[in-house]
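In this section we walk through a basic example: taking a raw amino acid sequence and producing a predicted 3D structure, encoded as discrete structure tokens. The instruction is simple. Fold the sequence below.
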Amino acid sequence: MTAVPVVVLAGFLGAGKTTLLNHLLRTSSGTRIGVVVNDFGAVNIDAMAVAGQVDSMVSLSNGCVCCVTDEGGLGDVLGTLTGSVDVIVIEASGIAEPQAVAQQVLASTNTSVEYGGLVEVVDAVEFAATRLRHPELDKHLRVADLIVLNKVDRVDAAELAEVFAVVTELAEGAAIVTTEHGRLDPGLLFDRRERPRPAQLSFDDLEDHEQHVHALYQSVVFETDEPMHPERLMAFLDSRPDGVFRIKGFVHFGQPERYELQVVGGFLRFRRARWGRNEPRRTSLVLIGVDMSGLEERLVDCVGEGSEAAMFAVHRHTES
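The resulting token sequence is shown next.
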């Protein structure tokens, strides 16, 4: 059974998290999205905002997600969603500590879920004021896997360039995308599933999404039948360029087993699995991000036979 990716959506109050989430829900095509909504208050306004648009929703009102322990807490909540959805999005409270939420997902013993990345939404208009009110924003940007600089249509070019430069410096290599009205392409966060569409179309179905800012991410496919050199590939993964957000696929190291690779931001993990009886021994990877130039050539340089000792570099990141 394929594990369900869990994406943590964070950002300070007013940054546009719920707007972005609603956009993902409206443009997800056949992908079934399960949502964990947590608005810090007795009345869960955010849950009301997304009601009716999700396949499954668990509301954790009147308490931050990051304050829920995994012992019968968030892990159980995620467990109620798996099996019926393709991806889970946790919209953390505007005052939640995003790293703590992400760590709960990473620490979960539920094998039916896997970490899908920490996405920090930033208000381009209020960026300077938010940093003054919440100095911890700098830390949030440093630990994020993907930063969504939202509301860029409401600032002029000079101000946007200044904000983008500061965010880039604080992000320390994380991918950064700019959006208007939270219009982020779902394909940047998770793989879309094609299912029969309803007979009645909404206005969002009729909209040409290719014309939006959110369609600017890129993907690169790399395939080879030759084995990959373990140390060279690990050197590539450890020094992957800024802007690469996700890498997924299978790696052929010339070993009896295949290695499933998952990279989300700074998170990197291999899983060993048996080759299928008639499955060709080959490497097949998809890289997704916002600046993908030169990646194919660098991966070609990683092709080559490696010794058994060279596999230690891979084993350090392989689930037992």
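Looking at the output, two observations stand out. Residues 218-315 form a domain with the Hypothetical Protein Yjia; Chain: A;domain 2 fold (CATH 3.30.1220.10). The longest strand covers residues 113-123. In the next section we compare this with other chains.
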